[in-house]
Amino acid sequence: MTTSNWKKAFTQLDEKPDVKRKYIKHNSPKKRAHGIATRSCKLCGSHRAMISKYGLNVCRKCFRQYALDLGFKQYR
Ligand SMILES: [Zn+2]
Questions:
Q1: Cα 57 to ligand 1 centroid, rounded to whole Å
Q2: Cβ atoms of residues 51 and 70 within 8 Å
Q3: Do 22 and 53 fall into the same domain?
Q4: How many A from CA of 55 to the centre of ligand 1?
């Protein structure tokens, strides 16, 4: 199992429903009401350096990649 996706173990646990139920009870990620984990980049899923202004909800790396397509212009 990796920390990136806690549901990867489901492929093995489908054979054992009771063990799977216990696994879900103790290993499912906590539902967050606020904080850094509630916001993620809608393009790459990163939680770091979010730009939510104008309803973008993308990280700075994806913003740099797609800024010209979105109509942003860099002043020098
Ligand atoms: Zn991103």
A1: 9
A2: no
A3: no
A4: 14
- Give the pLDDT of the chain (76 residues) as one tens digit per residue: 555 678 888 888 899 999 999 999 998 888 889 988 888 999 998 999 999 999 999 999 999 999 999 999 989 8
Residue 49 Cα to ligand 1 midpoint, Å, equals 9
Cα(54) to centroid of ligand 1, in Å? 16
Sequence letter at residue 16: K
Same domain assignment for residues 26 and 58: no
Residue 35 CA to residue 53 CA, distance in Å, equals 17
What range does the domain containing 2 cover?
Answer: 1-30
- Domain shared by 43 and 76, yes or no: yes
- Comparing C-alpha atoms, which of 23, 26, 22, 30 is closest to residue 9? 23
Quote the ligand 1 centre to 7 CA distance (angstroms). 22
